[in-house]
Write a structure and sequence with these properties.
InterPro entries: Peptidoglycan-bd-like, PGBD-like_sf
Strand content: under 5%
Number of strands: 0
Pfam family, one: PG_binding_1
Keywords: Signal
Largest sheet: none
Structural class: mainly alpha
Helix content: 55-70%
Protein name: Peptidoglycan binding-like domain-containing protein
Organism: Stagnihabitans tardus
Distance between the termini: 68 Å
Order of helices and strands: HHHHHH
Length: 119
């Protein structure tokens, strides 16, 4: 009987762990806070920059997450540190995604960044 109780409680443990992770994942929360059009715009920016090869559907998954993280690192490097985002911080993650949505980071994603400005 104890084994059955344990087996029945396992899905609940995984669901609650997943919910806790979602609450602490600032990047996922910031992405979810965007409109459907905004989420697709972020994925389009990432795709144009060569960071995202998935479907531009506005869904947040492992490909979108990986692309966001890799693009943020590339932007930081290509901007010589002028554009940095702490993706574990809710406000900063939101600032990053908003800038992507508006195209404000395009010059760092596929342009020459600040190279023409003297680095």
């Amino acid at each position: 009987m104890q084994r059955r109780s344990l087996l029945l409680s396992l899905p609940a443990m995984f669901l609650s762990a997943g919910a806790a992770f979602a609450q602490t994942d600032a990047l996922a929360n910031a992405f979810a806070a965007l409109s459907a059009q905004g989420r697709r715009a972020v994925q389009e920016q990432l795709a144009f920059g060569g960071f995202y090869g998935g479907s531009v559907d506005g869904a947040y998954g492992p490909r979108t997450r990986s692309a966001l993280i890799n693009a943020a690192a590339f932007i930081r490097e290509n901007s010589y540190g002028r554009a940095q985002f702490k993706l574990s911080d809710q406000a900063d993650a939101q600032r990053y995604l908003t800038a992507l949505t508006r195209g404000d980071l395009a010059k760092y994603l596929w342009g020459e960044g600040d190279e023409s400005e003297g680095g």
